[in-house]
Amino acid sequence: MNKKEINEIKKQFTPENCTITRICGCYVDGDKNKKTELAQTFLTLTEEENFKYFTIFKSTLSGTLGKNLLNMEFPAVQEQDGGTQEFLMKLKNSKLEENALVEEFYNKVIDTYQYGENYYIILVYGVYDVPGQTLDGIENDDASDYVYDYLLCSICPVKLTDAGLCYNEKTNHIESRIRDWVVSAPVHGFLFPAFNDRMTDIHGLLYYTKNSELMQEDFIDRTLGCGAPLSFKAQQETFQDIIENTLGEQCDFETVKTIHENLNEYVEVRKDAPEPPELDKLDMKKLLEDSGVKAEAIESFETAFDSIVCNEEKPKFSAATVASTRSFDIKMPDVVIKVKPERTDLVETRYIDGRQYIMIEVNDSVEVNGINVRNVNMDTGEIME
pLDDT tens across 99-124, in order? Predict the structure, then answer.
């Protein structure tokens, strides 16, 4: 799914556009015990409850695509009898009206979701009558001829509020506040099936994680059956390992700087694409070639790539994840230098008296601990204007 398709589904989470017909929920304590459950028609909830649930559902489809929102596909084995996709299809087709299937889903989540505190599983079923579109992208409700029905699952921590004082409007007094268990914003969830090309794609789903480093791999592998992708940090580290192993002796400052510049340009020219740009094996090889990496290093690239990502079937990296689009960082044991990624031209390496130095061009003004300092001509000692 791309950003436009995700936003189209998010627009349904309002009182005017609501496509949700049924909601089920299960409150689980830190010992994995079911404390209470909910199952009812969504529109029978109060207006205030609806509004709060809409906020949760929108959050489950929010964040950065490729980092917080991940497109996942089912391997063929999971679409067979007894597979995870086959079970999710049964659950969706039941419209959440078969209690045994809903209970089985709760049990799968509780068994695989690793969280030592209380949490609330919310599962909804919705039916979206997809409006037709004109050639210039304008929606036409009268031309609708396709229905997308779906499941949306949100997993929310339930936290005990802090002790404190509050104002009681009825008694007009400041008094001790009652501590309540409050449902927080979701930290994980998924949309099934995927909504690709504005149509149902039963071969995939959209996964949400609030923290890209806390993926819940066991839940993804066993309950969803899609195989957990590399986390945000793991992608960066894997990409860096491939570069280091490929370049070997050629892994010098200027080569790495050129790779950084070309990678950022790769991301920039694709920033308006509907889907976040990715780098596969061929893309990485071309990136190295365009960065002037020598032929002998290019020859070792495939070996380095295959040995490091050997467990991935068709590994791809999110280009925005592995690129340093916010800063160009140079780290040494006692010094850290941060440069705007588009101004790497200010930094160069030079050998002086047999020793290598990183040189930074001084322009405009210089601040030291917030204090403006004057530029001094090192040859004459004069202050430069």
Answer: 999 999 999 999 999 999 999 999 99
Mean pLDDT of 17-33: 95
Rounded to two decimals, what is the model's pTM? 0.79
Spatial distance between the Cα atoms of 70 and 208, rounded to a whole number of angstroms = 7
Q: What does DSSP say about strands 173-176 and 165-168: parallel, antiparallel, or unpaired? A: antiparallel
More confident residue, 95 or 299: 95
d(CA 3, CA 28): 32
One-letter-per-residue 3-state SS of the chain: CCHHHHHHHHCCCCCCCCCEEEEEEEEECCCCCEEEEEEEEHHHCCHHHHHHHHHHHHHHCCCCECCCEEEEECCHHHHCCCCHHHHHHHHHHCCCCCHHHHHHHHHHHHHHCCCCCCEEEEEEEEEEEECEECCCCCEEHHHCCEEEEEEEEEEEEEEECCCCEEEECCCCEEEECCCCEEECCCCEEEEECEEECCEEECCEEEEEECCCCCCCHHHHHHHHCCCCCCCHHHHHHHHHHHHHHHHHHHCCHHHHHHHHHHHHHHHHCCCCCCCCCEECHHHHHHHHHHCCCCHHHHHHHHHHHHHHCCCCCCCCEEHHHHCCCCCEEEECCCCEEEECHHHHHHEEEEEECCEEEEEECCCCCEEECCEEECEECCCCCCEEC
Q: Which residue bears the tokens 């930094």?
A: 347
Using a CB cutoff of 8 Å and minimum separation of 24, what contacts does 32-38 make? 32/110, 34/106, 34/110, 35/118, 37/106
Q: What is the pLDDT of residues 172-182, one digit of tens each?
A: 999 888 888 89
The single residue listed with the structure tokens 């079937």 is: 313
